[in-house]
Here is the input.
Amino acid sequence: MEIVIQQLTKSFGAKKALDAVNLHIREGMFGLLGPNGAGKTSLMRIMATLLPKSAGHVQICGVPIEEKMKIRGMVGYLPQDFSVYPSFSVAEAMDYLAILSGMSDRKARIEKIDFLLDKVNLTPQRKTKIRALSGGMKRRLGIAQAILHDPRVLIVDEPTAGLDPEERIRFRNLLRDFSEGRIVILSTHIVEDIEFTCESLAVLKRGQLLYEGKVKGLLDHAQGRVWTVTIGRSQLDEVRAVYPILSTVSEGEGIRIRLLSDERPFTHAQPIEPSIEDAYMKLMGGGA
Ligand SMILES: Nc1ncnc2c1ncn2[C@@H]1O[C@H](COP(=O)(O)OP(=O)(O)OP(=O)(O)O)[C@@H](O)[C@H]1O
Here is the structure.
C-alpha cells in the first residue's frame, strides 16, 4: 500500500501552490507540516480528487488519480471546514451521509453507524444536535463520516486546530488506531501533533518540499546548532538581530534564551539537544 507523487504541480494563475513535489507515502501515519500557504490543503484536495492538478502524477495503491470514482472509494477525507446541518442529530447526520455514500440497506447502515460512533466515542451524543457539539466532538464526527466506506487512505486537514489538550490527545490516538494497516495523512502546522503520532513526514514551504523522511531524521538538521545562554534583558534586541531565537524564559535579573547558530554564539553558551520544533524552525530558516 503506497501513494506515489511525482513532479506534482498546482498553479493558480501565476502562483504555484505546489511546485514539482515528489513524495512516497507508505502504510502508517504520515505528517504534512508547513506554515500557512505551504500547499498542504492543495496537495490533500488533489489526492481526494477534489482539485485538479496542473502537472505531474499521483497514484494511490497503483491507481492513477484520474480514475476518480476508484480513488474516491479508497480515500476518506476530512476537510478543515467540515460541517453538516446543525439541526440534525449526530445519528441523523451520519445516516444522511451514509445514504449519500450509497449505503441503501437501512439495517446495515444502522449497524455501521453504531459501530463508528462507538469507535470515535460519540455514542452518548447519538441524539445530540450538531450545533450543540464541542469542536472536538465535531472533528470526531468528521472522522466517523470520512471512514464510513472503510477507506484504505484517510486524509485529515488540520484536525487539531482549536482543540483543548485533552481532546487533541484523544483525537491523535483515534487516528493512530485507525492507521493500522492503512495510510493516514495528517496535515498540521503544530509540530507536536506530528512528533507524537507520525513515523514519517514531509515539510512544505511555499509549494516546495523541504524535507521528506523519518521524524527523527529531521533532528539532524538542528544537531549541534541549538544553544542556550542567559543574557541581560537589555541585550535581547541586540542578540535577536543576529540569531534566530527559539524561546525565552525569565531567569532572575536575566533571561534564558534558546537560539540557533551554526557555531558557538557566545563563550558561555551551552549546546543542547534539539527538539523537533527546533529542527523545524531551523528548516524554515528562522526562529520565533
Ligand atoms: N483557489 C485558489 N485560488 C488562488 N490561490 C489559491 C487557491 N487555493 C490556494 N491558493 C494559494 O495557494 C497557496 C497554497 O495554499 P494551500 O491552502 O494549499 O496551503 P496550506 O498549506 O494548506 O495553507 P493553510 O494552512 O493556510 O490552509 C497559498 O498561497 C494560497 O493563497
Observations:
- The pocket of adenosine-5'-triphosphate is lined by residues 12, 15, 17, 34, 36-42 (CB under 6 Å).
- The radius of gyration is 22 Å.
- The longest helix spans residues 106-119.
